[in-house]
Design goal:
mainly alpha, 2 helices, 63 residues, rod-shaped
C-alpha cells in the first residue's frame, strides 16, 4: 500500500506530508515495509507482469 493517499487520523492531513509525529511514524513504517517493489503502484506492477508474460510468449514462439 502506498502512503500518498492515506489520511492521518490524528491530524487529518495526508500521511505523505508528515505534519505530526503520527504521520511521520506511519510514513517511516510504510517506507520500511515497502521492500523492492513497494515504491511501485499496483497498476505499474500489473503492466510489468503483462509485459513479462508477453516476452515469454514471444520467446517461446521464436524458439
Amino acid at each position: 500500500m502506498t502512503y500518498d493517499r492515506l489520511v492521518c487520523a490524528n491530524c487529518a492531513a495526508p500521511v505523505s506530508e508528515g505534519r505530526c509525529p503520527v504521520c511521520r511514524a506511519s510514513r517511516e513504517r510504510l517506507q520500511q515495509q515497502g521492500g523492492l517493489f513497494g515504491h511501485f503502484s499496483p497498476v505499474v506492477l500489473a503492466v510489468l507482469l503483462i509485459a513479462l508474460i508477453a516476452v515469454a510468449v514471444l520467446l517461446r514462439q521464436v524458439g
